[in-house]
Amino acid sequence: MQPSSPSAQANFSYVFPAIRGVQAGREFYVSMCPLRLLPKLFHFDDEELLPELRAQRTLNKGRVPEIARYIVENKTSYTFSAITASIDGNIHFDPVGKDSVAAFRMGTLSVPMEARFIVNDGQHRRAAIEAALAAAPELGDETIAVVFFVDRGLHRCQQMFADLNRHAVKPSASLGILYDHRNAAAKVAKHLSLTSPVFKNLIETERSTLSARSRKLFTLSALHFATLELLPEKDLEDFPKASQQCQDFWEAVGNQIPEWIYVRESKMTAGEVRRDFIHCHAIVLQALGRAGRALYAQHPSELKKRLQRLRKVDWSRSNAKVWEGRAMIGGSMSKSGQNVTLTCNEIKRVLGLQLTAEEQAAEAAFHAGRKVPSKA
Known about the structure:
Blueprint: E1 2-3, E2 13-23, E3 26-34, H1 38-41, E4 42-43, H2 64-73, E5 83-88, E6 92-95, H3 101-105, E7 106-112, E8 116-121, H4 123-135, E9 143-150, H5 154-166, H6 173-178, H7 184-195, E10 203-204, E11 218-219, H8 220-230, H9 233-236, H10 239-254, H11 258-264, H12 270-276, H13 282-298, H14 303-307, H15 320-323, E12 328-329, E13 332-333, H16 337-351, H17 357-370
Parallel strand pairs: 4-8, 5-9, 10-11
Antiparallel strand pairs: 1-2, 2-3, 2-7, 3-9, 5-8, 6-7, 12-13
Helix pairs in contact: 2-4, 7-8, 7-10, 8-13, 13-16, 16-17
Pfam families: DndB
Protein name: DNA sulfur modification protein DndB
């Protein structure tokens, strides 16, 4: 892309090599844009405007550093999908020839410099690329695909935003972890799912929820988050050591939960265990992992001995006296951070572990909420 000479309209223009296509009877264009030019070309709507007067959502600035860090830390392997933008201006497409359909569709797209580009999809990618270029300017000559539509007013831009996001479905957490070969915790969790006698053949790798008839007992996402609770991220970078430590811990835990063993021995179905007990659900795995980290920190030499105390725990859903308000709300499993903490507190109590100040505060609030007001 480069500025052209004055056109027939006496304007300077940006010229993009482009491919012309047709959707819904309207022309659109696909081109490549150098990363260094994205911040100059694409701007955001004024965020002070009311939502009904904007063509896009408000930029979530909290997301930008994470995406920028992803680019900088993976310079040789990052991947981005196309940015979609509308052009508010008079454009002109020059095909390279007219003798064939291919020649007719390939050419150059001229856009007046005074035209306005509106990002319909990809504003966070654009902001992250700008931030990444500040840290790694050598990425400026790399390119990203851009799909250009002709702007037909605010109403059309808002409808495009709605249409582009209408059918967008984020992949399940388990599938994202399965396909992630960079994340250290994901690598360890996948290794455990394939090699650990506790989890082998019992991990659902595609979905993050299990149907009543599923033969799987755990989800990969649950094991992943439990792994993050068990070991600090810096320890997870040492894959052999982290894998062995996680395997030792979960085998010691699994030996104290009879129902996990019964499923492996086909004495109970996974569905029966999930229906009647809480210990195979994500919140409890996460709480067990967090308690495990405290156990390694406080009593590393007593790991297996203290974990034997888990055999005395009544993990059944019917044990509402213990689990209601901790792992369950109204009889249903709860995944909130507060419930993970309260479930972990109970496991720590069983294991004889000290609570952190934050955990003590959560415990105090939990018991205060259970007090029955005295009658006057």
